[in-house]
Amino acid sequence: xxxxxxxxxxxxxxxxxxxxxxxxxxxxxxxxxxxxxxxxxxxxxxxxxxxxxxxxxxxxxxxxxxxxxxxxxxxxxxxxxxxxxxxxxxxxxxxxxxxxxxxxxxxxxxxxxxxxxxxxxxxxxxxxxxxxxxxxxxxxxxxxxxxxxxxxxxxxxxxxxxxxxxxxxxxxxxxxxxxxxxxxxxxxxxxxxxxxxxxxxxxxxxxxxxxxxxxxxxxxxxxxxxxxxxxxxxxxxxxxxxxxxxxxxxxxxxxxxxxxxxxxxxxxxxxxxxxxxxxxxxxxxxxxxxxxxxxxxxxxxxxxxxxxxxxxxxxxxxxxxxxxxxxxxxxxxxxxxxxxxxxxxxxxxxxxxxxxxxxxxxxxxxxxxxxxxxxxxxxxxxxxxxxxxxxxxxxxxxxxxxxxxxxxxxxxxxxxxxxxxxxxxxxxxxxxxxxxxxxxxxxxxxxxxxxxxxxxxxxxxxxxxxxxxxxxxxxxxxxxxxxxxxxxxxxxxxxxxxxxxxxxxxxxxxxxxxxxxxxxxxxxxxxxxxxxxxxxxxxxxxxxxxxxxxxxxxxxxxxxxxxxxxxxxxxxxxxxxxxxxxxxxxxxxxxxxxxxxxxxxxxxxxxxxxxxxxxxxxxxxxxxxxxxxxxxxxxxxxxxxxxxxxxxxxxxxxxxxxxxxxxxxxxxxxxxxxxxxxxxxxxxxxxxxxxxxxxxxxxxxxxxxxxxxxxxxxxxxxxxxxxxxxxxxxxxxxxxxxxxxxxxxxxxxxxxxxxxxxxxxxxxxxxxxxxxxxxxxxxxxxxxxxxxxxxxxxxxxxxxxxxxxxxxxxxxxxxxxxxxxxxxxxxxxxxxxxxxxxxxxxxxxxxxxxxxxxxxxxxxxxxxxxxxxxxxxxxxxxxxxxxxxxxxxxxxxxxxxxxxxxxxxxxxxxxxxxxxxxxxxxxxxxxxxxxxxxxxxx
Length: 938
Ligand SMILES: *[C@@H]1O[C@H](CO)[C@@H](O)[C@H](O)[C@H]1NC(C)=O
Ligand SMILES: *[C@@H]1O[C@H](CO)[C@@H](O)[C@H](O)[C@H]1NC(C)=O
Ligand SMILES: *[C@@H]1O[C@H](CO)[C@@H](O)[C@H](O)[C@H]1NC(C)=O
Ligand SMILES: *[C@@H]1O[C@H](CO)[C@@H](O)[C@H](O)[C@H]1NC(C)=O
Ligand SMILES: *[C@@H]1O[C@H](CO)[C@@H](O)[C@H](O)[C@H]1NC(C)=O
Ligand SMILES: *[C@@H]1O[C@H](CO)[C@@H](O)[C@H](O)[C@H]1NC(C)=O
Known about the structure:
Strand order of the largest sheet: 7-6-11-4-3-13-16-15
Oligomer: single chain
Number of helices: 11
Largest sheet: 8 strands, mixed
Helix content: 10-25%
Radius of gyration: 30 Å
Bound molecules: 2-acetamido-2-deoxy-beta-D-glucopyranose
Distance between the termini: 37 Å
């Protein structure tokens, strides 16, 4: 697996909910293997071929990620060097993931002393050139959407025998303060250990740094001291450069490599008044985010889609989020709830103050939100507007307070007024600039541009909520960001005879924990100070003025003047382009054209890859082999997600965990297997289970891809015993017995569960029987009985047991396997259900390659591919075709519950459901796994 490396540079910032700590925003890896491209969605299966890798052919010997933040402006340079050690030429790949909020500004390849530089061109022109190349069959697009917040840049080049290549990619962006901090996140996921490996971050903040936190998901206690952090008043230096030996995640595991996120969070010191102004090289930038302002009361109407398409997890997550959000309302706030399908309902006809009683009442209402009919967005939003207007008219709202509508929807309008243009018009007219409208688009069926434009037109912004187990947290995170307005209608004024080319200088709201940034150009380079004024409506009137003066960075940072160059100008250009791109979405066609033309000119002038430009990379081999890097819009990202769903190659060669738990459905035993893979794992790996040196328990890790779970039911009668894991080499056997309800439920359907497990380790002489009452252990010739009602820890030479009272039993069998059995307690007096058990494998990589059994067979790599997504019986659950083990199966999108983290409620995990007793997926038939005794082998 050498020649394969992955590491990520991430900047968490910009405009997505900070409640999502694991957002991944950037990455780079270099690999010898073919990048796992998303194939065109034509439904034809690509042959599942193993890609060959020669361990010693390409060596990536150096990777450096160097980020310099100058007054929030992040300039990141990623350099990777590789050597082709082979006698023949080799294709070498370079892949980088960068934040979707960043612009690529340069890319170069240095080969045999020659430097090949990517050229930024107008997108249309680049496309023509590119299409010619496509016809010649020469090329591929370089940038693809990746995850929620990244995009992936991938390029490959043919390198002659015994030659070096150096790839360098530069990207830039303005960090956005959210919930009181800036965040720079780097994902470290090398696939091999690298001779020279370095992450360096330098932060220069003239306002003074109030704190810098560095943490990481992969730093063990031993690695922690390797992170160097030096913070002085205005500068922070953080570096991490582990040696080859230290790049192992587990000191004893051959092939293990560190893997995880490296996160730097910081904030700057804030003083009352104007904020901070930097004037350098003829451009200025003004940061405004005063501390200690009192919150302005908020009047908010939640307008919630309860149409049929919200069925399933979405509506449940919405309920959860609403209950949490309502609890967070302040007593000075007023609020209302509107729910709509093709019919509009209200919690109360008028806005209510958030008292203990109304909060309690509204929570009860929120718990009962259910999915019903069609989607009439127009009527829902207009109802919310009317409620706010009426409350204003009747003077029940505080004079100084902020009016806001939060719309949550998951689909397109299909009832009532359903023409998007007409809805835009109706809403704009009804709102009349008197309140803000924020739109949350839930899942992939929403037309995000429709919501985006509607928000832009009404002083608000739109966000996507991704269908995932953390959707409820995404919703709450968004609310947290907007729930504390400090100032309304903020104007930042500069003398018009002194500055021009100002970026936006009027803001509808300033939220707690955020920051307003304005930049502009000085008309006269020699000006050394000018007047600045800020006005706003807050709890009290807000008005400050003062002088901005030219800062002398040479004095502030005497040793490093050369670092800063033209950052104010580039920051100004970045901000201007971003704002123009936003503005180009609204307005008349002529306005749009002129705004777009301006944004294009600036993108070209400053070499930014924006949605209007492309970077053309010419490969050295032949002059007409072109590759083109684009910037994707949110709409394109969403489309890619929809497409990717149907065609992405699934190859689950990294088992981070597998699990087996119960089902409660009508006499069916449900086995469910989860394959969580890393994002990069579709690059095939000869030693998959070693790649990450063990398993990673965290589902919240966005690198995991919960959508890759497979699940199925097996129809079996209570009493049946299945062999779940069998490894003759190591002598490990796990059997599980099914039990049924203790009485027949009123609907006549008896649920089945796992009620008993028999576990044997022949070589170690260990024997374990686990039931819902107790645990019998046979070890070293002695029997011990443990009760679930106690907590215990047993350490033996061959087996460790950790029993957590009424909850879980973790079993570690020496040098072979580790798993956990969960006890699901049911109310004692439940008329028919009873306690049951769940089984989760934590680590199986030491078992032999011959391990088998209903669960054990999935300890091996399994490759599958899902294509041809099509409507299923229920709109929430599309059908698809799965190619696996040479079979073509009809599968259905479904949900399963994972109980490892939340033993009571579980978490919903999307999975591909395989019908028909999993025939075609499992080896043989389900009946082949049935045995007669808890300790019998087949
Ligand atoms: C490279 O070429 C030499 C001589 O032709 C040969 O002996 C050697 O095995 C080759 N090495 C590889 C890695 O192919
Ligand atoms: C990109 O990088 C190359 C190599 O360092 C340099 O020559 C070139 O000027 C850079 N281009 C831009 C637009 O900065
Ligand atoms: C490749 O780069 C390494 C390190 O810079 C250098 O030692 C080596 O000589 C180079 N090899 C070739 C063939 O240029
Ligand atoms: C509301 O409840 C909180 C705690 O639950 C209590 O401290 C507060 O006094 C209550 N307010 C009113 C007005 O009852
Ligand atoms: C899968 O479903 C399609 C109809 O959607 C049917 O024509 C086909 O025979 C099914 N294939 C299998 C293997 O069940
Ligand atoms: C599944 O297997 C059981 C026997 O174990 C059988 O009775 C049942 O019909 C099978 N179901 C399907 C859908 O094949």
